[in-house]
């Protein structure tokens, strides 16, 4: 919007008719300026991939790494996962606050954040997968580096998420860019799982204890020489596991650096075209109160909070489930890849579906798909069923990734119309959305790992008690289904239908036209 012009306060979703100007409108320059090239969309999408590459590796493998390679006890592992996630959640609104206070630079307001934190993200990520030579302080080591990593990745992810609103003012272009982003992010998740899974798969086989469980309770099953031989072989195997995890971390760190550079070279950040540049920003706390009172934002965030917790439970416990509950330890990396390949392939399907039938309908159809199949794997644990479940689950994973990030810009547009005086609030929407979902995921991860502790999980053992297998089945089957059902019930309250979304689009287009006219008028006056 042009400098000095104020928009009349209009409730979101209600179309107003602006007064007709007494001079000619500028032609289609504004609309054309908001079109995004294929290269811009692709580079924007590539920028989001490294976060998912690293996130996929930590989601699938950090829990089993802490338990079986770093060999800290389940309670300490649960504290690392919970406190780390909770810390990351708390840093989201803090980073969002500082972003709202950031000055506009030659490369934008958000891009400096992403470029500045990337080298430090890579270093902290590498040391998260490094086993220190000391034993007593390992809990502090992993807790410290996980919290540091969560802080730095927040400094990257919050501005990257908010960047969607500064690519274009056209909803269709933003939705298209979001589809590109989700496709590349799911592909990044696939790459992360592939890199991590294929490199570290040898660290989670039975080769180091083929005949006996190496837990302390079973050391008496052979002669003294056999016991010593097994212990030495187990230590050699543990050294191998540490090495392959560090190799995987180094490869993923390199991917992070390359993708960030590509995004910087190919994406242009645009300033906010709706808001007066001379108008003073509202204080952060007032903006936060306004955002938290916006009902579409609350219903969308609460719904996908529960849905993301369900997906997080499946991700974090899936490798443990395949290893100790259903005897698929030799196939888990390929099953994970099947899930993610299915998700990558189905992203265009869900993009077409949401354009044809609406975003809310797409959310219900896509996310409910996972429920019967996860339960099926729990009750019919064989290899063929596992691959069928993997393909079907990939469809829901794709929908759960695409839909919230496609719907959130619609919520921001709705807020613009309801609060036209606000400026620079986009980071509040995105940072607190990530805050709530991260915090809930942290609680669920901590509780699920504590459940393994109570079930009698034996760190470093090749086989686990029956209670552990039963607990893993609950964490993969019943718990995610309950969270998904709760989330979908809340999503029923989401008020932005396709009709409301289209009305908001028309209103914002009128505002943009008025802003272009006013800007041109002010330039003519100043020239005269």
TrEMBL record:
Record GO terms (molecular function): sphingolipid transporter activity; symporter activity
Coiled coil: none
Entries under SUPFAM superfamilies matching the protein: MFS general substrate transporter (SSF103473)
Classification via Pfam families: MFS_2
Catalytic activity from the UniProt record: 1-hexadecanoyl-sn-glycero-3-phosphocholine(in) + Na(+)(in) = 1-hexadecanoyl-sn-glycero-3-phosphocholine(out) + Na(+)(out); a 1-acyl-sn-glycero-3-phosphocholine(in) + Na(+)(in) = a 1-acyl-sn-glycero-3-phosphocholine(out) + Na(+)(out); 1-(4Z,7Z,10Z,13Z,16Z,19Z-docosahexaenoyl)-sn-glycero-3-phosphocholine(in) + Na(+)(in) = 1-(4Z,7Z,10Z,13Z,16Z,19Z-docosahexaenoyl)-sn-glycero-3-phosphocholine(out) + Na(+)(out); 1-(9Z-octadecenoyl)-sn-glycero-3-phosphocholine(in) + Na(+)(in) = 1-(9Z-octadecenoyl)-sn-glycero-3-phosphocholine(out) + Na(+)(out)
Subcellular location: Cell membrane
Annotated segments matching region Disordered: 1-21
Keywords: Cell membrane, Lipid transport, Membrane, Symport, Transmembrane, Transmembrane helix, Transport
InterPro entries: MFS_2, MFS_trans_sf
Domain of life assignment: Eukaryota
PANTHER family attached to this UniProt entry: MAJOR FACILITATOR SUPERFAMILY DOMAIN-CONTAINING PROTEIN (PTHR11328), SPHINGOSINE-1-PHOSPHATE TRANSPORTER MFSD2B (PTHR11328:SF30)
Protein name: Major facilitator superfamily domain-containing protein 2B
């Amino acid at each position: 919007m042009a400098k000095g012009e104020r928009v009349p306060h209009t409730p979101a979703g209600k179309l107003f008719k602006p007064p007709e100007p007494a001079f000619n409108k500028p032609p289609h320059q504004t609309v054309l300026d908001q079109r995004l090239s294929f290269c811009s969309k692709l580079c924007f999408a590539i920028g989001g991939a490294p976060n998912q590459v690293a996130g996929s590796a930590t989601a699938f493998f950090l829990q089993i790494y802490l338990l079986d390679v770093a060999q800290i006890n389940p309670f300490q592992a649960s504290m690392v996962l919970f406190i780390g996630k909770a810390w990351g959640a708390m840093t989201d609104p803090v980073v969002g606050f500082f972003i709202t206070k950031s000055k506009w630079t030659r490369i934008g307001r958000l891009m400096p954040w992403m470029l500045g934190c990337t080298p430090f993200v890579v270093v902290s990520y590498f040391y998260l997968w490094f086993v220190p030579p000391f034993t007593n302080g390992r809990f502090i080591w992993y807790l410290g580096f996980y919290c540091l990593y969560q802080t730095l990745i927040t400094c990257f992810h919050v501005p990257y998420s908010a960047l969607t609103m500064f690519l274009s003012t056209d909803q269709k272009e933003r939705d298209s860019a979001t589809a590109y982003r989700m496709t590349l992010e799911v592909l990044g998740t696939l790459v992360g799982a592939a890199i991590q899974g294929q490199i570290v798969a040898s660290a989670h086989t039975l080769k180091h204890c083929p005949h006996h469980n190496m837990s302390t309770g079973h050391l008496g099953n052979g002669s003294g020489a056999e016991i010593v031989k097994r212990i030495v072989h187990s230590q050699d195997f543990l050294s191998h596991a540490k090495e392959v995890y560090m190799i995987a971390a180094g490869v993923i760190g390199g991917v992070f650096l390359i993708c960030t550079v590509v995004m910087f070279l190919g994406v242009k950040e645009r300033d906010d075209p709706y808001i007066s540049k001379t108008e003073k920003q509202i204080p952060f706390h007032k903006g936060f109160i306004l955002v938290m009172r916006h009902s579409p934002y609350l219903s969308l965030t609460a719904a996908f909070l529960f849905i993301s917790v369900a997906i997080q439970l499946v991700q974090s416990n899936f490798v443990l489930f395949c290893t100790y509950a259903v005897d698929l330890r030799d196939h888990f990396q390929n099953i994970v890849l099947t899930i993610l390949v299915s998700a990558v392939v189905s992203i265009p399907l869900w993009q077409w579906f949401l354009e044809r039938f609406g975003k809310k309908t797409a959310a219900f159809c896509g996310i409910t798909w996972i429920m019967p199949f996860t339960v099926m794997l729990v009750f019919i644990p064989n290899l063929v069923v596992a691959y069928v479940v993997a393909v079907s689950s990939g469809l829901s994973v794709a929908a759960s990734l695409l839909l919230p990030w496609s719907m959130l810009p619609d919520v921001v547009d709705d807020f613009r119309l309801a609060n036209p005086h606000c400026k620079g609030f986009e980071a509040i929407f995105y940072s607190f959305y990530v805050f709530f979902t991260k915090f809930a995921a942290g609680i669920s991860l901590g509780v699920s790992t504590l459940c393994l502790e109570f079930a009698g999980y034996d760190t470093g053992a090749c086989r686990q008690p029956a209670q552990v297998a039963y607990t893993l089945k609950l964490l993969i089957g019943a718990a995610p289904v309950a969270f998904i059902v709760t989330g979908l019930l809340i999503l029923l309250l989401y008020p932005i239908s396709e009709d409301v979304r289209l009305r908001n689009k028309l209103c914002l287009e009128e505002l943009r036209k008025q802003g272009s006219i006013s800007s041109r008028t002010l330039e003519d006056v100043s020239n005269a």
